[in-house]
Design goal:
By secondary structure, the chain is of the alpha+beta class. 60% of the residues lie in helices and 15% in strands. It has a seven-stranded mixed sheet, sandwiched between helices. Helix 3 packs antiparallel against helix 4 and helix 8 packs antiparallel against helix 9.
Length: 374
């Protein structure tokens, strides 16, 4: 509720909320107890950079914010349900399109302005050392006059650390919701540094695998290339977000804009390194394909040489088998015990058989020798 007026998001999403509340019996009031629990991680009201109150629920936060002039509420949610989003949409007059994005998630990094409210989508990343892979999560922020709402759809970034840091820097926190936005952006970009280091280490390992002839290198190169592409999709669009903020899209505080430009410089370095990783992985994949092709060619040459050697041996064996088969055939013919056989009682029959065997064997030997089989 703002200025005594209750806000209901319009359009299709507003109808979705009406249908949901009718189905589950949620009363049309942000004071619903269900809206004060569940995905609420932390809620605080700040005055001049100092924590004034730590409400236990959304309804109490709204009351405290309305009672204190110049106060700022910072509400942190983790995977909230539609009741909590409904309550926040009514209280802070959030646009139905931004609310729908916050519920559905799976958005690219972007910055959109709806009246006096900024809607920012960030993609945080962290490197899992045990699994050696990059994990991505999504963070949505609603920044408006006197309030900051953060909606996390993953474990990163560590917003509790951001809150502790700002609470020790009252002068920075006193600059208002834009200071919270800057601190969160700084945390997200700083969280990219360990990811870059982890990817760089993985690429070094892959190079060792490739030149070591590891057959699993191609699979790992492909998997790492996908992670790099996802990282690019998370980091590169954030440059335009930071550029718009640094140019005054979200704040007229010149000091905050200087800080944002510093974050932009850090992000630019990250994006350039990630772009280099992608080109390097493409080159590694090409080198790996070349090495695999060379290895396959070597194996084919080895198989061809072995096959040729086997053929040569087979020729020799076949040749000698044919030579030895000739006398066997002649001896078999003359060994048949028939009474009426030519040359059976011939005086020179034995000598003739031997000469015939020698003649046939010699002829076969000469033929095979000329053909190179022996």
């Amino acid at each position: 509720m703002v200025g005594g007026r209750r806000f209901r998001p319009g359009g299709g999403f507003g109808r979705q909320l009406d249908e949901y509340e009718t189905r589950v019996g949620v009363p049309p009031s942000p004071e619903s107890p269900a809206a004060s629990h569940g995905g609420l991680v932390d809620s605080a009201v700040y005055i001049r950079g100092h924590r004034f109150a730590s409400p236990s629920g959304l309804a109490e936060t709204y009351r405290c914010l309305q009672e204190q002039d110049g106060a700022m509420a910072w509400i942190g949610l983790y995977r909230p349900d539609i009741e909590q989003i409904t309550s926040l949409a009514r209280e802070f007059r959030l646009h139905d399109l931004a609310v729908e994005d916050a519920i559905n998630a799976h958005q690219r990094p972007k910055l959109e302005r709806y009246g006096h409210t900024l809607f920012v989508v960030l993609r945080a990343a962290r490197y899992n050392d045990l699994r050696e892979e990059v994990e991505f999560s999504e963070l949505h922020l609603f920044i408006g006059p006197g309030f900051v709402v953060t909606v996390r759809h993953g474990e990163a970034p560590d917003l509790a650390a951001v809150r502790r840091r700002l609470e020790t820097e009252a002068q920075m926190l006193a600059r208002g919701p834009e200071a919270v936005l800057y601190a969160i952006l700084d945390q997200v970009v700083d969280g990219y540094a360990p990811v870059v280091a982890g990817l760089e280490n993985d690429i070094d390992e892959i190079e060792t695998q490739v030149f070591g002839g590891d057959p699993n290198a191609s699979r790992r190169i492909y998997g790492l290339s996908r992670e790099v592409i996802q990282f690019q999709r998370a980091a590169r669009p954030l440059l335009s977000v930071l550029g718009a903020l640094a140019d005054g899209a979200g704040s007229t505080d010149e000091e905050l804009r200087r800080y944002l430009r510093d974050v932009t410089d850090h992000l630019t370095q990250v994006v350039e390194r990630v772009d280099g990783f992608r080109h390097l992985l493409q080159n590694i994949l090409t080198v790996n394909a070349t090495l695999v092709s060379q290895q396959q060619n070597e194996e084919m040459r080895s198989l061809t040489a072995a096959s040729y050697s086997q053929n040569e041996e087979l020729k020799k064996v076949s040749s000698w088998a044919a030579i030895l088969f000739a006398p066997t055939l002649i001896g078999t013919v003359y060994g048949m015990n028939f009474v009426h056989m030519p040359e059976l009682n011939w005086r020179f029959g034995y000598l003739f058989a031997l000469l015939l065997m020698l003649l046939v064997c010699g002829t076969l030997y000469v033929i095979f020798k000329r053909r190179g089989w022996l």
